[in-house]
Amino acid sequence: MNLNIRINSLYKTGVPTKFVIRFAKAVQNCYKHEQEIHLLLDKYRFNPSREFFKCPLQTIKSAFENVEGVWWKPEIVKKINRKKISK
User: Fold this and answer.
1) pLDDT at position 5
2) Predicted pLDDT of residue 13
3) What is the pTM of this model?
4) Residue 67: CB partners within 8 Å, gap ≥ 6?
5) Distance, CA of 46 to CA of 14 (rounded, Å)
6) CB-based contacts of 18: which residues, under 8 Å, 6+ apart?
7) Partners of 25 in the beta sheet?
8) Are 52 and 16 in contact (CB under 8 A)?
């Protein structure tokens, strides 16, 4: 999924402010991995019924490290998008 599209869809569905992606992973079965990460971060929930967490960024990155996948690299995405535009 295009991360810019995902950011815009999240901003329209209840995220209170715009945000910046610091890191991400391309994974198989994203729902399963999202649940795993939420379980690892559960004690940091801002509100028990919401998907917002208050903790150091490194804590979140450590949770991502437990998930199999390919780390997102912004420079690669920019190069791919430039190639698509130039075609």
Assistant:
1) 74
2) 60
3) 0.69
4) 25, 27, 33, 36, 37
5) 14
6) 7, 11
7) 71
8) no
What is the distance between the terminal CA atoms of the chain, rounded to a whole angstrom?
20
User: Backbone phi, then psi, for 25, in 5-degree steps?
Assistant: -135, 145
Element (H, E) at 76: helix 74-86
Bridge partners (DSSP) of residue 45 are 53
pLDDT (0 to 100) of residue 37: 95
Which residues are CB-neighbours of 45 under 8 A, at least 6 positions away? 51, 52, 53, 54
**pLDDT (0 to 100) of residue 17:** 73
How far is the C-alpha of 42 from the C-alpha of 86, rounded, in Å?
44
Token pair 């698509």 in the structure block, residue = 84
Average pLDDT per 10 consecutive residues for the chain, totaling 87 residues: 70 69 88 94 91 93 94 64 49
